[in-house]
Amino acid sequence: MGKSKRRSATLGALPLTSMIDVVFLLLIFFIVTANFAQDEHKLPATLVTEGGGVQSNDLQPQIIQILMQGAMPIFTMGEVAVQDAKSLEALLKKLPKEPGVAIKCEPDVPISAIAAALQAARDAGFQKRSYVPSDG
Predict the structure, then answer these.
(1) CA 75/CA 71 separation, integer angstroms
(2) Quick one: 92 exposed, middle or buried, by C-beta within 10 A (0-12, 13-18, 19+)?
């Protein structure tokens, strides 16, 4: 009878040290392989248009072209042209802010006109502002 009690005592005791090691390694594995990226359904709703798809102009920033007319800089956006920074700011306030704005100019445009366009974009509420030098 002494032999069977000793056998049941050794069978009932489990070594917990190795089990704790395995649990710890599994925990590290799941933390390292977890995906913390933002899900696609949480992307900004401004990308969806009325047709249900995404148009290319929704993803591209609006472009402000600065040209020189004599000694005066002219700010153009598509067909609309303005001559001063306050008018440019009023024009930019009407546009969607999410795509951002890019300022493109010729090499002969003074830095003060570029700075005025960047400041007008900032005052209009654009978070994404960039300067794109001309190829010429």
Answers:
(1) 13
(2) buried
CB 99 within 8 A of CB 68: no
Q: How far apart, in whole angstroms, are the C-alpha atoms of residue 18 and residue 30?
A: 19
Express each pLDDT in 30-72 by its tens digit. 999 887 765 655 555 554 455 555 554 445 667 888 888 888 8
Buried b or exposed e, range 36-65, using 16+ CB within 10 angstroms? eeeeeeeeeeeeeeeeeeeeeeeeebbebb
Hey, where are the domains in the chain?
A: 50-133
This prediction's pTM: 0.53
Just give the CATH number of 50-133.
Answer: 3.30.420.270
